[in-house]
Amino acid sequence: MGTKFRSFLNVFLLSIVVAGVLVACSNNDENKENTSSNDEKQAIEMGQINWAENIAVTNMWKVILEEEGYDVNLNVLDIGTQMAALENDELDISPEIWLPVQDASYLEQYKDKVNFSEATWYDNAKVGLVVPSYMEDINSIEDLHDHVDLFEGVITGFDPGAGTMEVTEDLIEEYDLPFELLPSSEPAMLTEISEAMKEEKPIVAPLWSPHRIFSELDLKYLDDPKEVYGGVEKIHHATRLDFADDHPELATWFDNWNMDDDQIGSLMVEVSEAEDPLDGARKWVEENENVINEWLEK
Questions:
Q1: Strand, helix or coil at 2?
Q2: What region holds the ABC-type glycine betaine transport system substrate-binding domain (predicted)?
């Protein structure tokens, strides 16, 4: 009897161990599935344009969201490509849409395919042609008619396809300017402006506020009596159509996002002065915790 009891006991204990191992494996598999699901939910694809303020705010949001447990990928794409990517669910959010004028064509084209936010994160934006302040005789777009040779008939532009570039083409036609708009990139345009001003040469280019260059160089906007560029622009964000359903928390945070001149200016300075834009953004986030908590409703 003793031997049989010991055999029964060994079998019983072994069955408990096996059952425990099976339960543990089942839990591990379930945890892996949940982890995988959470990781998938936390991956956010954000568009980035190679503009100073866009680099600043996209890196800022990357810092904020990754501190909240999300994995943020920044995709460098022009605005037209971002709109198509939002429509195709390849991108989650495009954080910089200028309305009512600059990006009106994209709003019209994608209004039923992309969600354009009613909320704005900057309410005092401005766009226009600028010249160095030392060009005292040129204060209006209409003055350009009398100085075509001075500028060699060229308006120095930036990214082709940008809303402001499209509006500038409309402006050339509206004012009947004998000028050619030469596209390049924002960094190239800023370099040309800076190099021209070192030698006090003439240059005219489309620019916008907020922008760090106005704190570095003495530039002035030309009057736009026909208001082709519009008046005050507001900056919105856009998302793929199902973004708010998939990420209601994030949708609320982005709707709460709002910055004043000092905040966006200081962020751009931190980012531009850092070797890595992410480090500059991280420093700004650490110094503006109260502002960010308001966006995140903490």
A1: helix
A2: 44-287
Those residues with Cβ within 8 angstroms of residue 39's Cβ, 6 or more apart along the chain or in another chain: 71
Q: Counting every residue, how long is the chain?
A: 298
Percentage of residues in the chain having pLDDT higher than 70: 86
Give the model's pLDDT for residue 36. Answer: 39
Confidence (pLDDT) at 140:
98
Report the CATH superfamily, name and number, of domain 44-123+233-295: Periplasmic binding protein-like II (3.40.190.10)
CB 77 within 8 A of CB 47: yes
The alpha carbons of the chain give a radius of gyration, in whole angstroms, of: 27
Helix, strand, coil in percent for the chain, rounding step 5 = 50, 20, 30
Q: Mind listing the pLDDT tens digit for each residue in 95-131?
A: 999 999 989 999 999 999 999 999 999 999 999 999 9
Those residues with Cβ within 8 angstroms of residue 208's Cβ, 6 or more apart along the chain or in another chain: 98, 102, 125, 126, 127, 128, 164, 233
Pairwise CA distance, residues 104 & 21, whole Å:
61
What six digits make up the tokens of 160? Answer: 């082709």
CB 71 within 8 A of CB 44: yes
> What CATH number does domain 125-221 carry, 3.40.640.10, 3.40.190.100, 3.90.180.10, 3.30.390.30?
3.40.190.100
Backbone angles phi, psi at 72, to 5 degrees: -105, 125
